[in-house]
């Protein structure tokens, strides 16, 4: 039996299915060949029903034989340390992977998520659009010059960056051919397809 357990919600509305961040951990485990189990907490009452394990009432969180982590980025780096398929073991390759993993969270997702939330308000003038245009332009230039972000091969940094960039409104924003090719290539990987299908199946089978 696996000692790795990924916790997620028992159900979510149709909109976020396929994008709940436990998918990142599932994908990493599939890439690395790490056996894992998925367990759930009730979606109803989520704000307070698991604060002992996740102080912000979110998912995912990871349990690795009693080592518990919340925040998907922290959990991904923990998994990456368990397999060189996710992060190289040489100091330079590891440092580059860490750098781009943090960049996906701090330089890209910190802009795209609030921008996306503002679009839901229907406001004609989204004050973050210029900032996001700049950040996505920077990553487009990087991806036009290389196939992978770090170490010349697939790493957890690519997994996380692709998951950030594949959000439909972000993916459709502007003409960014290198980024689109990158997202398409990453989401065509068998490990992603398995993780994505398994998450959809969980929520669809629990449909209310």
Largest sheet: 4 strands, mixed
Rg on CA atoms, Å: 17 Å
Percentage of residues in helical conformation:
40-55%
Strand runs, count? 4
Order of helices and strands: EHEEEHHHHHHH
Portion in beta strands: 5-15%
The geometry reads as globular
- Count of helical regions: 8
Question: Pairing-aware structural class of the strands and helices?
Answer: alpha+beta
Terminal Cα span: 30 Å
Average pLDDT works out at 96
Uncertain runs: none
Strand order of the largest sheet: 2-1-3-4
Overview of the structural elements:
The protein has 208 residues and is of the alpha+beta class. The chain has 8 helices and 4 strands; from the N terminus they run E-H-E-E-E-H-H-H-H-H-H-H. A 4-stranded mixed beta sheet has the order 2-1-3-4, covered by helices on one side. A hairpin with a 2-residue loop joins strand 3 and strand 4. Helix 4 crosses helix 7 and helix 5 packs across helix 7. The mean pLDDT is 96.
Ordered list of secondary-structure elements with their pairings:
Blueprint lengths: L3 E6 L12 H11 L4 E5 L19 E4 L2 E4 L1 H9 L10 H30 L8 H15 L12 H10 L2 H4 L5 H11 L2 H16 L3
Parallel strand pairs: 1-2
Antiparallel strand pairs: 1-3, 3-4
Helix pairs in contact: 1-2, 1-8, 3-4, 3-5, 4-7, 5-7
């Amino acid at each position: 039996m696996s000692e790795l357990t990924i916790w997620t919600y028992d159900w979510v509305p149709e909109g976020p299915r396929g994008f709940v961040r436990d998918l990142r951990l599932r994908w990493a485990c599939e890439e690395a060949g790490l056996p894992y189990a998925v367990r759930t907490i009730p979606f109803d009452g989520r704000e307070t029903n698991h604060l002992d394990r996740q102080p912000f009432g979110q998912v995912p969180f990871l349990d690795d034989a009693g080592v518990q982590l919340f925040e998907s980025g922290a959990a991904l780096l923990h998994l990456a340390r368990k397999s060189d398929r996710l992060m190289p073991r040489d100091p330079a390759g590891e440092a580059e992977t860490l750098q781009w993993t943090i960049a996906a969270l701090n330089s890209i997702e910190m802009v795209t998520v609030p921008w996306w939330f503002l679009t839901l308000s229907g406001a004609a003038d989204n004050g973050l659009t210029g900032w996001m245009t700049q950040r996505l332009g920077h990553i487009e230039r990087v991806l036009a010059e290389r196939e992978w972000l770090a170490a010349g091969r697939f790493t957890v940094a690519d997994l996380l960056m692709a998951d950030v960039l594949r959000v439909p409104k972000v993916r459709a924003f502007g003409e960014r051919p290198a980024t689109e090719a990158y997202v398409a290539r990453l989401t065509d990987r068998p490990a992603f397809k398995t993780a994505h299908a398994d998450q959809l199946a969980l929520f669809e089978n629990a449909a209310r």
